[in-house]
């Protein structure tokens, strides 16, 4: 089964399989097969059906970027969300576990509430409010983007070294790559994986904030907040798309909680920011 194992993608199959993606993709395979049959191309039709189903089985989905749009289709459809995601068993998916996994950030261990972060950032002239919207002030925004561009060109090794050198709280940082995805692993005992785009965005923000804030914890928390102002992926330059955390894949909170809005890079398939909506 070596060849099959190599083909299969664990992130979207097995326990991680996302049913919206699977159902949608099987439907598309079926439609193409029917279309070919109707045009009397039975061999092609059979081939599409067999290969299509096999790919969906092995990889979780066939149509590129399904994980980005399937959850939105499901969210918009009248079909109850529970049909796709069973209620988590008691104590199985703790809310803390989920947010941790979704919000990979240097600021994971920093506990400062969002309001304090924004008050301090605005007092330091880093952000400003216009109408109902928040913006980074022009000088900060320019400095941040210039720094991100420089960091984006660095190797993963060099990024890890820079991260360890800049941040007091990071005692160890190592590069880690698997298939097309790159991370920096932080810490020696309690390990944490930070995806490359997050490292670039937060390290650049942290350095820019260094000239404006003295408090180390605020710099780290502020660096995470900067990610909500991204409109392009700091690594590949793709325009970010707004998505929802109703799933794909494995990030489901539970039927009665509102899905959070997220910013996702469709090319890196990486979530860059999660706007946490309260689930009142
Ligand atoms: Zn990207």
Automatic annotation (TrEMBL):
Keywords, in A-Z order: Membrane, Transmembrane, Transmembrane helix
UniProt key word Transmembrane: yes
Disordered as annotated region, ranges: 84-105
Classification via InterPro entries: DUF8054_M, DUF8054_N
Limits of the DUF8054 domain: 5-84, 119-215
Domain of life according to the entry: Archaea
Residue ranges of the TM segments: 17-36, 43-62
Keyword Translocase: no
Protein name as it appears in the record: Uncharacterized protein
Organism: Haloarcula japonica (strain ATCC 49778 / DSM 6131 / JCM 7785 / NBRC 101032 / NCIMB 13157 / TR-1)
